[in-house]
Amino acid sequence: MKLKTLLTASAATLLCSSVASAGTLDDVKAKGYIDCGVTTGLAGFASPDDKGEWAGFDVDFCRAMAAAVLGDPKAVKFTPTTGKTRFPALQSGEVDVLARNTTWTFSRDTDLGFEFLGVNYYDGQGFMVKSDLGVKSALELDGASVCIQTGTTTELNLADYFRANNMTFTPIVIEDNAEARQNYESGACDVYTTDRSGLAATRVVLSNPDEHVVLPEIISKEPLGPLVRHGDNQWGDIGRWTLNALITAEELGVTAANADEMKNSNNPEIRRLLGSEGDLGAMIGLDNEWAARAIKAGGNYSEIYERNIGPNTALGLARGVNALWTKGGILYSPPFR
């Protein structure tokens, strides 16, 4: 969601080129782990437990990549990043992939020199308020104080929305979700705005979640997804097709539990996906078992979604547009052939 960076576009391009030229796949194999940039902590998406073990929707993607590349889903170092620090961390090579609630935009894909691997969660910006305010719509927020994370797309979205509706607001700028939660819950701001998935994740860790409500308006498109640096096409292909493998596995009924058995399927695409037919792995510098390992690490897209953020979790997020294209959503992977 970040709009600004600590580096100029030209400096970013030079950094991306120098880091990518070494070959991220070779670097990862040499050090024996993937350094994955994640949030500083967002329930359901990426957060550490009291033992420092990370879990969540984005965490599981990182583990799938590690399984695909290194054969070990635990071969991941998780580096917490804020909206302000995430892009410099990726540009400089501090992290190998960024997997945190980051919106795919034109400028990030081009001017900042990044390559988005796809969309793993279709989202939109919303608003959360305390129930006792009696507010039913964002159109009733004229004059409100609004907590907003610095350096995010939500800043401009918020300004545009209020301007278009002839309303005013007072911004309360914060660094990360933890600070936003503290300010919002203490009453330092009337409203918290971010992606609706982020609001759901924040709401469940408030002292009294039932005393807060997410308003119905969705004021933007926020296609969230993992990203890597421009200039290293092989590494980008590995990340992109790992994500596609998880989505395709759901569509074809391949799960963590049955992946080995499904290698004997009569369906040619399942056989290509799982490496029992064809030679897709060699095309991205991996063996033919890479996708099977990624799926077995934490399951297909549905398994990852349902375990971390689905309707039966504290977040309770319905699939909605994130359902497969065959089930009324827009989630779609190119074919494995």
Describe the structure.
InterPro entries: Bact_solute-bind_prot3, SBP_3_CS, Solute-binding_3/MltF_N. Keywords: Signal, Transport. By secondary structure, the protein is an alpha/beta fold. The protein is 38% helix and 16% strand. It has 14 helices and 14 strands. The chain has a five-stranded mixed β-sheet, with helices on both faces. A three-stranded parallel β-sheet has the order 4-1-5, with helices on both faces. Strands 2-3 form a two-stranded antiparallel ribbon. Strand 9 (144-149), helix 6 and strand 10 form a beta-alpha-beta unit. Helix 3 crosses helix 9 (233-252), helix 3 (57-70) runs antiparallel to helix 13 (290-298) and helix 9 packs across helix 13. The longest helix has 20 residues, at 233-252.
Which secondary structure elements does this structure contain, and how are they paired or packed?
Blueprint: H1 9-21, H2 24-31, E1 34-38, E2 47-48, E3 54-55, H3 57-70, E4 76-80, H4 86-92, E5 97-98, H5 106-109, E6 114-116, E7 121-123, E8 125-130, E9 144-149, H6 153-164, E10 169-174, H7 177-186, E11 191-195, H8 196-203, E12 212-214, E13 222-224, E14 227-229, H9 233-252, H10 259-262, H11 268-274, H12 280-283, H13 290-298, H14 301-308
GO biological process, one term: amino acid transport
Family: Belongs to the bacterial solute-binding protein 3 family.
Signal peptide: 1-22
